[in-house]
Amino acid sequence: QVQLVESGGGSVQPGGSLRLSCAASGRTWSSYFMGWFRQAPGKEREFVAAIAWTGGSTVYADSVKGRFTISKNNAKNTVYLEMNSLKPEDTAVYYCAAKRLDLDALNGYNYWGQGTQVTVSS
Q: What is the sign, positive or negative, of the torsion defined by CA atoms of 101, 106, 112, 117?
């Protein structure tokens, strides 16, 4: 049974930092993309970042480039999203997701976690 379990969300002031974790289980992930998405109230879910489990190539949304970093720990089957210089517009539920490797890192994810809330407010 595939499981993606996020943790690490919370409340932080603007300019602060948080690190999200996604523990992945239930299959061998070597041929998968692992992605982070977010959904703010009243808005559609949007892509944030993705990493290829093998090789570690990454891709980011323009809105988070230079502030967020996606990484992985193969031994722990865990993907991380380090978020720095947080802004109020980063407030959203953040979801971990997975899909088989192909040419499109932004779409077509078919495994999802339950989400973790990130609130950036003074």
A: positive
End-to-end Cα separation, the chain, in angstroms: 40
Using one digit for the tens of pLDDT, what is the confidence trace for 52-65? 998 889 999 999 99
Q: How many beta carbons lie within 10 A of that of residue 4, not counting itself?
A: 19
CA separation for the pair 33, 58 (Å, rounded): 9
Query: Which parts of the chain sit beneath pLDDT 50?
Result: none
Nearest-angstrom CA–CA distance, 7 and 91: 15
Q: Tell me the one-letter amino acid at 78.
A: T
Q: Torsions phi, psi of 85, nearest 5?
A: 50, 50
Nearest residue to 64 via CA among 89, 28, 32: 89
